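=== RUN LOG ===
request id: a7f3
mode: sequence -> structure
chains: 1
length: 177
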Amino acid sequence: MPVAASPLIEVNPGLMIWTIVCFLLTLFVLKRFAFSAIQKTIDERRERIRQSIEEAEHAREEARRLLEEHKALIGQARGEAEAILTEARRVGDAQRERMREEVEADRQRRLDETRRQIEGETARALTQIRAEVAELTLVATAKVTGKVLDDDDHRRLITDAIKDLDFSVLEPESANQ
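=== RESULT ===
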């Protein structure tokens, strides 16, 4: 009984040679036409993947740079906002101080004007009192003496009467000093 019962397992040199020739021919055709196209497609895909990775890295770096710029701009905006607030506070304080000074100057001006008016009214009142005292002196003298006096007598009596009166009590304090 033969060892090889199946014709597929049986060693047949002609079939082996033809199998090797077909294999080599198929290998040559595949290598010549299919493998290069497949390798080219694989290389192209590998290049696209590499470019996509590089673009992703570039995009990541760009995003990181933009984020840093954004943070810097926010910091700069905050600094500018603080500077604006500081300037506004300074201007507000200066305006408040100027307004206070203007109000104080206006108050002082009105106070001085009121003092001048009071001094003027006091001077007019004193002049009027002196005139009335002189008139009363003339009337009292005429009644006491029973005669009408001439102009020289009037002046002398008025001067004597006014000289004896103390008007310094009625004058403002600034005039006494």
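=== NOTES ===
The CA atoms of residues 128 and 149 lie 22 Å apart.
The mean pLDDT is 86.
=== END ===
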